[in-house]
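Forum: Protein Structure Q&A
Topic: Joint prediction for protein chains with partners

I've read a bunch of threads here and the consensus seems to be that you should model interacting components together rather than docking separate models afterwards. I'd like to see that in practice. Below is the full input, 926 residues plus whatever partners are listed. Could one of the regulars post the assembled result?
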Amino acid sequence: MTSINWPARDKLKVIGTRLDRLDGPAKSSGAAKYSLDIQRPGLLYGKILGSPIAAGTLKSLDTKAAEALKGVAVVHVMTDPGKPINWAGQEIVAIAAETEEIAVEAIRLVKAEYERTQPQVDDTNLEKAEGRPRTRTDGDPEKAFSEAAATVSGKYSVAMITHCCLEPHGQVSEFRDGSLQVWPSTQNVSGYAGQLTQSSGLEANKIQIDCQYMGGGFGSKFGPGSWGNACVALAKKAGKPVKMLLDRDLELMIAGNRPSAHAEVKIGADKDGKVTAWDSKVWGTGGMGNYGAPPLPYVFAFTNRSTFSNGIRTNRGPAQAWRAPGHPQGCAITMAAMEDLAAKLGIDALEFYLKNLEFAPEALRDTYREELNVAADLIDYKRKAHPRGDKTKGPIKRGLGISLHTWGGQGHNSACDVTINPDGSVIAAIGTQDLGVGTRTCVGMVVAESLGLPLEAVQVHIGKNAYPASGGSGGSTTIGGISSSSRRAAIAALDELLKKVADELKISPEKLEAAEGKIREIDNPQKSIAWKDACKLLGQMSITQQGRHAAAAKTELTGSGVGGVQIADVSVDIETGLVTMNEMLAVQDCGLIINLKLAESQVYGALIMGVTYALFEETVYDGQTGRMLNPDMEFYRLATLPDVGKLRVHMMTGKKYDEQGVIGLGEPPVISPGAAISNAVANAIGVRVPHLPLTPDRVLAALENAEART
Amino acid sequence: VQQKPPDVSSGFSRREFLRGVGASSAATALLTAGMPDDVEAADFTRPVGPGEIQFSLSINGRDQNLSVEPRTTLLDALRNRLDLTGAKKVCDRGTCGACTVIKDGRAIYSCTALAIDVVGSKITTVEGLGTPEKLSPVQAAFVHHDGQQCGFCTPGFVVACTAMLKQHSSPTPEQVRLGLGGNLCRCGTYAGIKDAIVEAGKMVSNGRHGDVGGAT
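Posted by a regular:
Agreed with the consensus. Here's the joint model:
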């Protein structure tokens, strides 16, 4: 039996290398077909009318003119007259037509009358909270504050943002021969069909899912949504395939948001700079649903602390998980309060974090210490750091800011089939999905490593629910799940092959291994048989073995619990309020890394997403109409290439990290940028800009407030 | 019924088309769709549509017959009628660059051009630059430097980089920042893209890989 454990670092040939992603050529040549690109004979184009009002009732709906338009095939009502409207963009009616142009025109011909009530979109006023607050007290914060050598009180907030996936939410649906074929843009291939049984009237085993490429999800694409179900209803009614992906305005209004967070924090420390007390109140909104409050205090569990949280229901589109739900908000609030306290005490921020690591989770303290030191070296912290407020002359002020974060990232449930064919070809089949992080490539690399083959020898099949079920891609759980299941499948298949070879060579299979494209004797590597010749021994029957991973914090292949440190270097023009990124540095661990290039890519990406929510993006709502004022990509602003400055990524590798096993990476690096950049701006200009994103008006307002106080 | 595409390769311009629209805006009568003379109106001095009209576009070096409504954008014509889906519809408002194609040597957003507006122009899409088996230098550099994650913005970036390298084969960092500031990525691939365009520029300048690709 070949050992399931990952080979030692010096034996690894594929894992840990920087191979190009398998689907890179298909993507860069435009050949990759996403849901939005699927063409079918007789395809109809679906569009949705979203409510122009944010609160009230749909009084009447008249679709006659739309139905009469030449080229309109079917109409599906999504909100019945008399029903409430809870947010602008709420789905009223879906229409499928022969061309996209006709579908757009048909939507304009729908006559809908509304009774409008005053919408509530304000998330800043805690008095508007209706839910029951959650409170918790540990230790004796009151006493600790009274004894603290220094305390600071601050208000910090993080705006609601959206996922803004470049490929909008949606799918193509086609009924044929009593079954339903769906091409969805999803991060949940194996869990998608079960969510379409009602609208299709079919059992899940009659629904085929195919998602080879998807244009971004970030936590918002686990299910079909109302639009996916409407697509099915339209296809069923029309008897023709229907494509329904949201237009950009609806995508930004209804397809998911990351809840806002507003906080009042008081934090105290003793004279040595050890934090002794924490008190926080946090509130915000994710729309009409329950509010998922950010974890506070974040990373640091101070001995004496009290916390309060409550949510505000607003007439905004619904929340969806957004990379590391709650963590970026909790991080921005906590690390800002930490550095504000450090500044008041006159203690350098880096030193302050190091002093307080005893409050971080025990398993991560050494990692944080190591990462803080590596980060400080890489960014030349000792030379560049200065006390709060850049004292150099002129309007351009420069500063550094630090942040720490953590995430679990244990592997999800996953099953994978590996087939070895008599001709030597190898297939890995797994019902997972590749959100662009390289899952396809990583499955191939694990199987190749396990069979002693190069990556190109393995054909990887993903993206269909016909393959063994694997979990949805959320919470950084994919790489743990799929690397474990594919490793187990490959080793099981290999062991069968080794038995055949052992019979032929009249040797015990335990004495054989697969390496360098051969099956060879472990103790006598010169005695070998080429992979293809070994596979010929199978005769006509292929070997297929399934490997399974059951979610657990620690297995022999996978682990959980990562740290991560980031430092931002910014310049701020105090005359215009403009923040410019000089450099953003991430030092990140994630256990054993399967593909270093792809891991780095994901961290680079997280830094850019982080710069975006730190400086630019937010949903803006109008208090009067309740409508989102920027549901487009001009005013819902994403960072562009010139905005992001220099980016640096350092992945922690080595024995200690390898031994943790494989751990997910999707969430952790996107948590800290807001905090680090906010801290860097405070370090540069000498005052805290309390609200993310740090737009020029907010920077100028913070400077003005500080002047007014002095 | 396939009608003969109009010969509008000479003498047709956006300005003349607009003038035609203006001149007849006083008259409320519009031509009905499908009439033979709508396609023979080579000068388009009268408004066309509503309803589909037929014409031909030069795409990736081939003449492609189209039958679309005058309001159809170049992007929708490419994607929905010609199955050239490399150009992506993301913002549909000329902001994000995911639909970038090359028109007569210059990068344009195909969501902001009407299909009938580019009659007579040479259009190159990402599919015209290379294939997965035979990548153009820019496409290959995107793979090597991992200038792509989900890949949805990638074709737009590849085309924008290609058009840019035609003007600046060894772009300075400042030229890269300015030249690629009109394309948006959500996954965050700018670091790889910056490296990719520099490498692609070198490959082209060295002459080892021939032209950067795409019709001029």
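Residues 190-205 of chain B form the longest helix (16 residues).
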